[in-house]
Design a protein that fits this description.
Elements (H helix, E strand, L loop, with lengths): L1 E2 L14 E4 L2 E7 L14 H18 L7 E8 L5 H9 L9 E6 L9 E8 L1
Parallel strand pairs: 4-5
Antiparallel strand pairs: 1-2, 2-3, 3-6, 4-6
């Protein structure tokens, strides 16, 4: 089943915002794009991370899950010097102690030169 919501940016390529297979939801990488016009939201890692997580949460909710159901994320960050600031923002979207498994890697470049992208697997 394809999951799509107007509360997150539209897919800008040959992919879906998310796909649900059985009870597992696979969310494509979320960037700090505005759901309304696709523009980049935020100039620093904190602002961009908030937009990424709001976009991710919009897809999670549209599929009938909650952020407590996120079991794994992969975070792509353009500069590990932003890791601590990103972590502070990221953790605020989950209940204390109920964090998903996660990988976080530095990459050389992301779409529209954003600072962060996060993909997720969700299950309950």
């Amino acid at each position: 089943m394809i999951i799509s919501t107007e509360n997150a940016p539209k897919a800008i390529g040959p992919y879906s915002q998310a796909r649900k297979v059985g009870s597992t939801l696979y969310i494509s990488g979320c960037c700090p794009f505005s759901p309304t016009d696709g523009s980049v939201v935020g100039e620093n890692i904190v602002e961009q991370a908030h937009q990424v997580m709001m976009n991710l949460e919009a897809i999670v909710v549209a599929a009938g899950y909650s952020m407590n159901d996120v079991v794994k994320t992969t975070c792509f960050i353009s500069d590990m010097g932003n890791f601590v600031s990103f972590n502070e923002t990221y953790k605020s979207y989950f209940n204390e102690g109920v964090y998903p498994a996660r990988s976080c890697v530095e990459v050389s470049r992301l779409p529209k030169d954003v600072l962060i992208e996060v993909e997720a697997v969700v299950a309950n």
